[in-house]
Design a protein that fits this description.
Strand content: over 45%
Distance between the termini: 21 Å
Largest sheet: 4 strands, antiparallel
Number of strands: 18
Helix content: under 10%
Order of helices and strands: EEEEEEEEEEEEEEEEEE
Shape: globular
Length: about 200
């Protein structure tokens, strides 16, 4: 097992299905589903705790890097490198819609209230949209992670705190914190960071 302070994590089961590297693994809010995505074209939804494969979702580009759930647990959202945002119903695993012109990148995350979707768009910084119904996205806003035009800044990973703060990995140099959904930067933690998560 993996020792993490007073806890020891023991492997329970292997989820077999992906043929390429997995980069994203996210639980639904109720903990009953897990979505995985990575270097292949497909994302997968698994039942928890059985590990049963439920749905396979195929992206529109070569790499389906990222996937997440809406906080209400009704919908999965898939994105990737220069890939459109696609919405999938968890009632039957069928694609509901593709948001034309809405591209993502390295990661996706919903605000805790489900009103905003944010994308880590690699060298494109952050992109946020307000949700309009189950699959609509409106009011696009883009934010760079640095004001220095000579510094390459790669928005790599996202995590929302329950109260709404947003952590963004500025790979590989820093973790950047934003206040609320207006994407106002508050501070930077200088460190080599790969991922972020809140308890």
């Amino acid at each position: 097992g993996l020792r993490t302070g007073p806890l020891v994590l023991q492997p329970r089961l292997d989820l077999k299905g992906h043929t390429e590297q997995v980069r994203t693994a996210r639980f639904s809010t109720d903990g009953r589903r897990l979505v995985t995505a990575g270097l292949g074209r497909e994302a997968r939804v698994w039942a928890v705790p059985s590990g049963e494969a439920m749905w396979t979702m195929e992206g529109t580009s070569k790499h389906a890097y990222c996937a997440t759930f809406t906080p209400d647990g009704r919908t999965a959202v898939l994105g990737g490198e220069r890939d459109a945002v696609t919405f999938w119903g968890l009632e039957d695993g069928k694609r509901l819609d593709t948001s034309a012109g809405r591209t993502t990148g390295m990661d996706l995350a919903f605000s805790p209230d489900g009103e905003y979707l944010v994308a880590a768009a690699g060298y494109g910084g952050l992109i946020s949209w307000r949700r309009d119904g189950r699959t609509g996205l409106v009011g696009e806003k883009r934010v760079r992670l640095t004001d220095n035009p000579k510094a390459e800044s790669l928005a790599h990973g996202l995590a929302f705190a329950p109260a709404g703060s947003l952590a963004v990995v500025d790979h590989p140099r820093a973790l950047v914190m934003f206040a609320g959904y207006g994407l106002v930067g508050t501070h930077r933690l200088l460190a080599r960071v790969q991922h972020a998560a809140f308890s």
